[in-house]
């Protein structure tokens, strides 16, 4: 569950809010989706669901779509108007070019500039119906619907897509599958059957939820398989996710599902991924990011000294959008000084697949809905099917595996963004995570939580900065509790060897003197309570039972909720007076009675409140002392009742007085001795307290040093993992580049800005006789072999214009090449040289020259021949034809020159025997005369042609040429008929 930006799912929500009584199926389709939509609706053979169709279409198709779908289903098909009430067994069609949202029981047309209407509707469907939302994506181009399906899955709904193999256009289904938000991918007809089965599952039917007696077995299976204990997470949320998987697998009983996951490990993996809920987006909760960019981040940047890094931690980062969003905001805040301030952003999560996707930084085109065009242009690179985060932003962020609930945290962080994780944790685990985040922050650091989260019971650790956006600031505590990393997870006690107790059970042994001190304090010191200025109890001392009686209701340590009602008013006045005057205050005695069973006890108490200043805690505390005084009237009455009858006679009275005097003296002596002993004990106690405080301080320093070492080690491990990953990535890219250079058929050279050869392909090495030792050397020798000045001119023009440049050169091997130079941009975006590619164009160049030579020769030698003539090269391509040929067959030079002779026209020259004779003519010089062809010529009709051929040499080009003469010998009647035919 530790992933970024998990939505605030409603605990106990069973998906029956909103419409409540029946599921609503949202169907998204784009190009080619009509056929799949028709097949799907035709196969639907059940009642009790409503269908809302959102399709990319033009306004002219609206009325046709209603008619087409009405023929495919027994349900009523209607167009959506603003405020249309949703009813089961209806199909609702969204208007073309409009955004539709579900609110309550009605569909509303919402003005929006979004180009993703399917995502827009799916998100409203998820927010309104929760587990009763079902999303289906059919054939279509692009990625619309992917984010919407993620929102539906995040809120407990079911997500289905058309299988890419059956889709006319697989872009939208494949995008959703790649995003891991799909429960099943099937053909349209099979989707209808799947929907019918899911509809009958208890997950979508009103009634009691399945018993959860076996849930702890699933916890054990998940812990053993993936190493993460989920027993500290909210049971309601976990159980709803398990029930959702049971609905997808069409299993009604938990015991059956347990057997299923034990038999099929892939289902346990699917359940684990469902529990992680990896759904997030860029700049989620715009108000929070606005406050970050306008107030919080500028404060962090302004207090940094030269060379001190800005450190940010994003636990539960999911696929990285949150971490990259903060990085972009930081770059915008720092502006021109961004290169002067080091930035370290750490993104962590327990999902290895999510971390891998975050490291790649590739996202679908749907992010256009969350990222402004300015940020897309500045921080992203457009790639196939979406965008990739630019290198400048990716270099600021390091991603690694980490479980914030048990692993050592990072330290000295300026900002921690832990959003929508705490809502899935139970109270004790929430407190533990917040303590970890408190430790990770520096004293003036900030904590950003999700919109549905608060610090809860950890209010003593953080102070609120902005209540609406849930931004907090760390409180500096003098005696913060030590963090214990990698301890036993909640709900599972650690096991220890037999006869050895748990470290938590080993308590320090008290000395006899400490026991005596404690007994004296309890016996003689008045009862007291130490509280903070917020009236939270820190310490009880002595027997406070007569004065403190917790009230019924939620547990609390507020002293005003703990003290007896008879003392409320007086205690409040004493506290207020002591706080305002900053001096001890004592009130007159108060008489009240307490009853325990049948026994009634009277008390006469005086309350004293004394402020205590604690400099290291940057505040003060208040000591409340209860002085219990004797009730004078009652004592007198009691004394009279118990006084013995005085003995008769003066002697007896005198003896008693003497005894009383002696007893008083002895008592006084005893009291003095006791006071002396008390003073000595007090002095000894102070010395022991001082020694204890020194030992405690030393222990805290050691604990702090240990925690810092653990945090530093965790950070080094994270950085090392990132470096190892980048080294592996570089090795893979180097291997890819080496194989590409070896496989490239055209010679390729990489020349840096200093005029040195950096890399070259095997084809270039073979052509230019290059060796590995030539890498890094000068290109002077290459320049001379590849056209000299032309080579330089191409390189300069490419770099100066930042665009490809091409020149035709005659190289050292007397062959023609097209030399193309493209500018080379490094990772910082600056031009650092050029990549040169040589393409062999010798054949085409010489063929073109040959055509020029042949044309010049023929124009001199054959201008007077009136009938059609054509010349062919050794590949039977036309290199020249006279005007009579173009006129006779109604063709032009563009459609004739350079083409194969047998492909001209409608295939009239493709006669096999004619092709054979031309080959014999070119290869052996065998001429032929009057070869008769009869064919339906285009624009001429049925005609008879006699073709004669001879070989021509010595025209100034290599090889032989075939000169063909064509004479029309069609009968006059046929010729007249063919002319009259048009």
Question: What is the second-level CATH architecture of the largest domain?
Answer: 3-Layer(aba) Sandwich
Rg over CA atoms, rounded to whole Å, is: 45 Å
Characterize the biggest β-sheet.
7 strands, parallel
Task: Identify the strand order in the major beta sheet.
Answer: 3-5-2-1-8-9-10
**Estimated helix fraction:** 25-40%
The count of helical stretches stands at: 28
Mean pLDDT: 79
Stretches with pLDDT under 50, minimum 5 residues = 1-18, 486-510, 633-647, 975-982
Strand content: 15-25%
How far the N terminus sits from the C terminus, by CA atoms, comes to 80 Å
Tally of discrete structural domains: 5
Class from helix and strand fractions: alpha/beta
Name the shape in a single word: elongated
Q: Do you know the CATH topology of the largest domain?
A: Rossmann fold
Strand tally: 36
Question: Would you identify the CATH H-level superfamily of the largest domain?
Answer: Vaccinia Virus protein VP39
């Amino acid at each position: 569950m530790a992933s970024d930006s998990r939505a605030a799912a409603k605990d106990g929500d069973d998906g029956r809010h909103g419409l409540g009584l029946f599921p609503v199926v949202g169907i998204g389709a784009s190009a080619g989706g009509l056929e799949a939509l028709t097949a799907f609706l035709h196969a639907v053979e059940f009642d009790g669901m409503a269908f809302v169709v959102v399709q990319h279409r033009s306004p002219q198709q609206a009325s046709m779509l209603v008619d087409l779908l009405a023929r495919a289903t027994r349900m009523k098909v209607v167009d959506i108007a603003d405020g249309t009430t949703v009813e089961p067994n209806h199909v609702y069609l969204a208007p073309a070019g409009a955004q539709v949202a579900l609110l309550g029981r009605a569909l509303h047309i919402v003005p929006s500039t979004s180009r993703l209407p399917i995502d827009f509707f799916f998100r409203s469907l998820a927010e309104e119906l929760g587990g009763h939302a079902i999303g289906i994506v059919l054939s279509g181009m692009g990625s619309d619907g992917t984010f919407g399906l993620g929102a539906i899955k995040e809120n407990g709904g079911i997500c289905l897509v058309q299988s890419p193999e059956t889709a006319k256009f697989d872009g939208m289904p494949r995008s959703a599958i790649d995003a891991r938000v799909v429960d099943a991918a099937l053909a349209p007809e099979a989707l209808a059957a799947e929907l019918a089965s899911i509809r009958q599952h208890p997950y979508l039917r009103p009634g009691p939820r399945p018993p959860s007696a076996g849930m702890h077995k699933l916890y054990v299976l998940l812990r053993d398989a993936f190493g993460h204990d989920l027993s500290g997470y909210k049971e309601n949320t976990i159980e709803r996710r398990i029930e959702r998987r049971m609905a997808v697998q069409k299993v009604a009983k938990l015991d059956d599902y347990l057997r299923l996951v034990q038999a099929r490990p892939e289902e346990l993996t699917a359940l684990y991924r469902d529990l992680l809920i990896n759904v997030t987006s860029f700049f989620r909760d715009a108000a929070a990011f606005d406050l970050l960019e306008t107030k919080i981040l500028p404060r962090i940047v302004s207090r940094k000294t030269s060379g001190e890094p800005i450190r940010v931690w994003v636990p539960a980062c999911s696929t990285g959008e949150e971490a990259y969003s903060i990085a972009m905001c930081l770059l915008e805040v720092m502006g021109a000084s961004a290169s002067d301030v080091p930035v370290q952003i750490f993104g962590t999560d327990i999902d290895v697949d999510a971390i891998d996707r975050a490291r790649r930084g590739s996202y679908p085109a749907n992010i256009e809905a969350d990222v402004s065009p300015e940020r897309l242009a500045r921080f992203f690179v457009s790639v196939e099917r979406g965008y990739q985060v630019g290198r400048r932003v990716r270099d600021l962020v390091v991603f690694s595996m980490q479980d914030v609930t048990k692993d050592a945290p990072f330290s000295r962080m300026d900002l921690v963004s832990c959003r929508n994780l705490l809502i899935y944790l139970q109270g004790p685990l929430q407190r533990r995570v917040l303590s970890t985040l408190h430790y990770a922050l520096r004293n003036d650091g900030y904590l950003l939580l999700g919109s549905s989260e608060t610090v809860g019971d950890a209010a003593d650790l953080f102070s609120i900065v902005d209540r609406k956006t849930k931004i907090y600031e760390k409180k500096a505590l003098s005696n913060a509790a030590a963090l214990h990393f990698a301890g036993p997870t909640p709900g599972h006690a650690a096991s220890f060897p037999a006869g050895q107790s748990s470290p938590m059970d080993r308590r320090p042994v008290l000395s006899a003197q400490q026991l005596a001190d404690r007994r004296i304090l309890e016996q003689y010191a008045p009862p007291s309570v130490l509280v903070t200025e917020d009236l939270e109890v820190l310490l009880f001392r002595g027997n406070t039972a007569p004065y403190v009686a917790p009230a019924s209701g939620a547990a609390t340590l507020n002293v005003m909720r703990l003290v007896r009602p008879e003392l409320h008013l007086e205690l409040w006045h004493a506290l207020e007076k002591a706080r305002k005057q900053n001096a001890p205050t004592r009130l007159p005695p108060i008489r009240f009675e307490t009853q325990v069973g049948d026994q009634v006890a009277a008390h006469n108490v005086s309350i004293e409140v004394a402020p205590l200043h604690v400099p290291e805690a940057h505040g003060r505390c208040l000591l409340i002392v209860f002085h219990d005084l004797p009730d004078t009237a009652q004592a007198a009455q009691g004394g009279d009742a118990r006084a013995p009858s005085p003995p008769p006679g003066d002697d007896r009275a005198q003896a008693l007085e003497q005894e009383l005097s002696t007893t008083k003296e002895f008592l006084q002596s005893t009291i003095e001795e006791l006071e002396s002993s008390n003073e000595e004990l007090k002095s000894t106690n102070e010395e022991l307290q001082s020694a204890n405080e020194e030992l405690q301080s030393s222990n805290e320093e050691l604990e702090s040093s240990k925690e810092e070492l653990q945090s530093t080690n965790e950070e080094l491990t994270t950085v090392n993992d990132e470096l190892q990953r980048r080294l592996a990535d570089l090795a893979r890219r180097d291997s890819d580049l080496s194989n590409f250079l070896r496989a490239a058929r055209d010679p390729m050279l990489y020349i840096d800005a200093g005029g040195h050869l950096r890399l070259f392909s095997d084809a270039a090495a073979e052509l230019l006789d290059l060796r590995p030792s030539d890498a890094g050397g000068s290109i002077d020798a290459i320049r001379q072999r590849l056209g000299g000045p032309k080579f330089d001119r191409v390189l300069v023009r490419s770099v100066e214009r930042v665009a490809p440049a091409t020149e035709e050169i005659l190289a050292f091997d007397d062959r023609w090449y097209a030399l193309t130079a493209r500018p080379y941009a490094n990772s910082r975006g600056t031009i650092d040289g050029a990549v040169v590619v040589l393409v062999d164009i010798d054949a085409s160049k010489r063929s073109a020259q040959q055509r020029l030579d042949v044309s010049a020769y023929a124009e001199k030698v054959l201008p007077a021949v009136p009938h059609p003539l054509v010349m062919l090269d050794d590949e039977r391509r036309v290199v020249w034809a006279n005007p009579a040929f173009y006129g006779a067959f109604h063709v032009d030079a563009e459609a004739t020159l350079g083409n194969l002779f047998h492909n001209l026209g409608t295939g009239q020259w493709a006669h096999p025997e004619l092709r054979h004779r031309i080959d014999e003519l070119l290869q052996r010089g065998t001429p032929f005369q009057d070869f008769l062809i009869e064919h339906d010529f285009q624009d001429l009709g049925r005609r008879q042609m006699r073709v004669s051929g001879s070989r021509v040499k010595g025209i100034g080009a290599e090889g032989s040429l075939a000169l063909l003469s064509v004479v029309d010998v069609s009968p006059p009647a046929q010729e007249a008929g063919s002319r009259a035919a048009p």
